[in-house]
Every structure is written in C-alpha cells, then in structure tokens.
C-alpha cells in the first residue's frame, strides 16, 4: 500500500472535474485533482513530492515520482501549461533525485496561470492504473502533505 499525499494546498476534487478529456477520462490513470489555493502571503504555491521515491521525469509543469514499490505518481500543474514553456514555474528538484514525501519540487503561481486564461487545477494520477481504481474521494480542502488516498 502506498499513501499518496496532497502535493499542493487547495480543494480536493474528482479527476472528472479536470477540464481535459485525457485526465478526466482517466486515460493516463486513476487519481484525483486539486484546485490549488493562492498562498495568503501572495507567494508562489509549492508542489511537494506526494510519495517518497525517485524523480523519474521533471518538467516545469509536471513531475513523475516513482515509489520504491513501482507505483508512479504524476502531478500535473494546470492544464495546457506546457505551452507556457516554463514561464511562471521554478523547478526546485532534479531528475533522478531521491526524494522524501513532502520534499519541494516545483514553485508556481496559481494566479499567474489563471491570468493567462488557463486552468490551474492539478491532477494527481497513479500512472497506468485502471480507471476507477482510486475511490472514496471526499471533496474537501487539503493542506500540502495531507493524505489524499492510498493505493
């Protein structure tokens, strides 16, 4: 069993709330989404590792962590944010690094993404998992590091 923690503070939502067919249709895998909140101090939000493991892939807008048991967790920051070419993101980790759950990975501005007319919602997906395998989602506000589901 792998506990998956909230990579960012915000509102926990079903993956079906993501305005993207690939994520909403669970084509990448099952999971949840978090509509990130804007930090009260106006600072950037920080995405943290949802599980301990190895940083398999790292882009300014997305990261995949591979847990020691082979579970891959994708955190995607916003929708269509790849088109920003890294603008508005600060990468805080390196590919192939070993991380603990809660380690900082990427800083970004949810407001900055929204000001560009894009969704800042963050899908959190178990790579290659069967649709519907993440269940019992309770919509609620979460803080970074809160348990959001177990696989």
UniProtKB/TrEMBL annotation:
Q: Where is the PTS EIIA type-1 domain?
A: 20-128
Per the UniProt record, the source organism is Tsukamurella conjunctivitidis
Q: Which InterPro entries match?
A: Dup_hybrid_motif, PTS_EIIA_1_perm, PTS_EIIA_component
Q: Which GO molecular function entries does the Swiss-Prot or TrEMBL record give?
A: kinase activity
GO CC annotations, alphabetized: cytoplasm
Q: Which domain of life is it from?
A: Bacteria
A Gene Ontology BP annotation from the UniProt entry: phosphoenolpyruvate-dependent sugar phosphotransferase system
PROSITE patterns in alphabetical order: PTS_EIIA_TYPE_1, PTS_EIIA_TYPE_1_HIS
What is the protein's given name? PTS glucose transporter subunit IIA
> Where in or outside the cell is it found?
Cytoplasm
KW Nucleus (keyword) present? no
Species lineage: Bacteria, Bacillati, Actinomycetota, Actinomycetes, Mycobacteriales
Identify the keywords attached in UniProt to this record, alphabetized. Kinase, Phosphotransferase system, Sugar transport, Transferase, Transport
